[in-house]
Design a protein that fits this description.
The structure is a homodimer of 314-residue chains. Chain A has 314 residues and is of the alpha+beta class. Chain A has helices spanning 12-15, 17-28, 76-92, 113-129, 182-185, 187-190, 195-202, 217-220, 246-251, 266-279, and strands at 44-45, 57-65, 96-107, 134-141, 146-156, 172-176, 207-213, 229-233, 257-262, 285-293. Chain A folds into 2 domains: 8-34 and 53-156, PurM-like, N-terminal domain (60s Ribosomal Protein L30, Chain: A, 2-Layer Sandwich); 172-296, PurM-like C-terminal domain (Phosphoribosyl-aminoimidazole Synthetase, Chain A, domain 2), CATH 3.90.650. Chain A has 10 helices and 10 strands. The first copy, chain A, has a 5-stranded antiparallel beta sheet. In chain A, strands 2-5-3-4 form a 4-stranded mixed beta sheet. In chain A, helix 4 (113-129) links the parallel strand 3 and strand 4 (134-141). The two termini of chain A are 26 Å apart. At the A-B interface, helix 1, strand 1, strand 2, strand 3 and strand 4 of A face helix 1, strand 1, strand 2, strand 3 and strand 4 of B.
Chain lengths: 314, 314
C-alpha cells in the first residue's frame, strides 16, 4: 500500500495530533500499558521490577524507512512487525529479552490513516507475541518522508551479555537457520526473532561471541574475528535457503539469524549441536567453519574478499 | 549550513559505512564509552549500576527533523545540542537524570561530512555537560531527508517519578523561567535543560504534577488539568521573555521550561518559592494561577480557548 494520499480526509492531517494519539492508543491496545507506564507523559516510567538483580540492561535502536526498508509492495502490517522484530533480533544476539519499546515516528501529514492503523496493529501483534510493552514515543511532521525508529530496552537473560568481541583462534563458527533470499522469499518482513535461541546460547559458557546476520554473512562475520585471526569457512557447509546459491547465502542480508563462535574441542562443538537439536528440533544449527591464525593456510576455505554484503550509505 | 552537498567527496557517501562509524566515534570522543558499553555491538550494554535500588527507570524519545525542527540557518552544532537537550528536558520534567542515550540517524548519502561532524560535536559537548553517555545508535540511508531521533534512558532522582496526572483542584500552577519568543531569540536551540531544577522540585512532596512546556503554555497546560477542574491563569502573572507579548508567552512553544502544580495553602506555595530562590537565585519561579472546580466563576482569568499552541501534523 502506498503510505500517502492526496485525499485530506483519509490522512493523519484530518485527525490532528490529539485525536491521532487517541487512535494510536486504540490500535496498540493491550500492547501499550496505561500512563505513566505508557504513552501520555514526558517520559515512560518503567516498572521498578524492569531490571532484575544480576542482569545487565541493554539498549538498541533500529529504524524502518520508506524507500529503503520497505516500499508500496509491503503491507503496512508487515512494516510494523518488521520494525519491532529487527530490534528484537539485536536483543536476541546479546542473549537478551525485551523490557519496553518506544517509537519515534516522522511522517508526512499526507500519511494515510489506514496505512498507519495497519502499521500499528502489526507492531502491536508482534509486541504482544514477544511480551514487549510499547511504553511511549513521539510523532513529528516530516514532509515527504516516513521514518519510524524503534528503541528497545531489554535485559540479559543470564548474568552476562554475549558480545561480538569474545572469540579467539580455534573457536568454531556456527549459524542458526538458513541464509540468503530474504528479500525474494519475504523472510525480511516475516521472520521470527531468535529470542529463545539467543537466550539458550547465552546460557552456554562455550558460546564465546554472538551477533545477528543482517548485512550478509560475508560482511557481518568480520565483526566476530579477533585481531591476528582469520575465518576459514567452507562453502559446502553454509546452510542456504531453498533456491539460493552460495553467493546469495553469503551476501543477500536481512537473514536475522544468529552467528556465533564456540570455544573448545570438536567434541564440545558437536555436543552443543546435539543439545540444540533437542531444544530446537525444527531450527538447524550449522558449524560452518573455524577461526584460524591469520598466517594459517586457507586451502579449501572461501575467499570472503570476493563477497560483499549490504553497504549502507551508498 | 545546508546539510547536503552535490560534491561527492564532501559527503558521507565518500566515506562509506565503516569509515563513517570510525569518524563518529572520534567526533563523540569521551561522550561515547568503549563497546559493549558504547557503539560496536548489537545492543549497548549499560553498567549494572545504571539503575540504583529504589529509583524508577525512565525512557523517552524525541527527534530533530530537517525542515521542521531546524533549517539551513541553524548551525549543525546547535542541532546536535538541541536533539539531546530536548530529551533531557523531558527527563527533567519527571524529576529524572540521564543514564544513556542512543541515536538513530536517517540521512541522505549527500549529507555533508562537515555538517555531520559539527552535529556530533554539538551532541557530544551537551552529553559531557550533562553526564549522558552516548552508548550506541544506528545510521541508515534516507534519500532526500535528514531525521535524527534520540532515545534517552534515565532514572528518577528520588523514589517517585513526577507525572502529569497528580494535580487536584486547589493546587497552585507555577512555571520556571520566562516564556515566549523561543524561535526569534534562539532559545530553542541554546536552552539549558532544567535537570537540577526538576530534581529539586521532585524532592518536594507538595509538587503534585509536572511537565515541560514545549508546544506553548496555553496548549500544554491542559495535560495537567484533572477532570472536573479548570485552570485560572492571570495574564499579568505570566513571566514573558523580553519583547514578548502575552500571546507569544502563551503560544510560541519550545520554551523548555517546567510547568508544575503545588499542593497546599498559599503560605506553602510561598515557602516553596522562597526556598527555590535560595537554590536557584538566577531562575524565576512564578505562581501564575490555580486549579479551580470546572463550575467556578472565571472572573479576571484568561480565556485559554482563545490561545492555541503549536499543532503537530498540520
Amino acid at each position: 500500500m502506498h503510505p500517502f494520499s492526496d485525499q485530506p480526509a483519509q490522512t493523519v492531517a484530518a485527525l490532528g495530533e490529539q485525536n491521532l494519539l487517541r487512535h494510536i492508543r486504540r490500535w496498540l491496545g493491550s500492547a501499550m500499558p496505561a500512563a505513566p507506564h505508557g504513552m501520555g507523559d514526558d517520559c515512560a516510567v518503567l516498572p521498578a521490577t524492569a531490571l532484575p538483580r544480576g542482569k545487565r540492561p541493554l539498549l538498541t535502536v533500529d529504524p524502518v524507512i520508506y524507500g529503503e526498508h520497505f516500499d508500496d509492495a509491503i503491507a503496512p502490517r508487515a512494516v510494523g512487525r518488521k520494525l519491532l522484530a529487527r530490534n528484537l533480533s539485536d536483543l536476541a544476539a546479546m542473549g537478551g529479552r525485551p523490557v519496553a519499546a518506544v517509537v519515534s515516528l516522522a511522517l508526512d501529514p499526507r500519511t494515510r490513516l489506514d496505512w498507519l492503523e495497519a502499521f500499528y496493529r502489526g507492531l502491536a501483534a508482534t509486541a504482544r507475541r514477544h511480551q514487549t510493552p510499547v511504553v511511549g514515543g513521539d510523532i513529528a511532521t516530516h514532509r515527504g518522508g516516513l521514518v519510524a525508529s524503534l528503541t528497545l530496552a531489554g535485559v540479559t537473560t543470564s548474568s552476562r551479555a554475549v558480545t561480538r568481541s569474545g572469540a579467539a583462534v580455534g573457536d568454531f563458527i556456527a549459524v542458526t537457520g538458513v541464509l540468503g533470499g530474504s528479500l525474494s522469499s519475504g523472510h525480511h518482513h516475516a521472520f521470527t526473532p531468535r529470542l529463545a535461541e539467543g537466550a539458550w546460547l547465552a546460557a552456554r559458557r562455550e558460546v564465546s561471541a554472538m551477533m545477528d546476520v543482517s548485512d550478509g554473512l560475508a560482511k557481518d562475520l568480520h565483526a566476530l574475528v579477533p585481531a591476528r585471526a582469520k575465518p576459514l569457512l567452507f562453502g559446502d557447509l553454509i546452510p542456504r535457503r531453498k533456491g539460493c546459491d552460495l553467493r546469495a547465502a553469503l551476501t543477500d542480508g536481512e537473514d536475522y539469524e544468529l552467528l556465533f563462535t564456540v570455544r573448545g574441542t570438536p567434541a564440545a562443538a558437536a555436543r552443543l549441536a546435539a543439545d540444540w537439536s533437542r531444544a530446537f528440533p525444527r531450527t538447524p544449527l550449522t558449524v560452518i567453519g573455524r577461526l584460524a591464525p591469520a598466517s594459517a593456510p586457507s586451502a579449501g576455505a572461501l575467499d570472503l574478499s570476493a563477497y560483499h554484503g549490504f553497504e549502507h550509505l551508498r
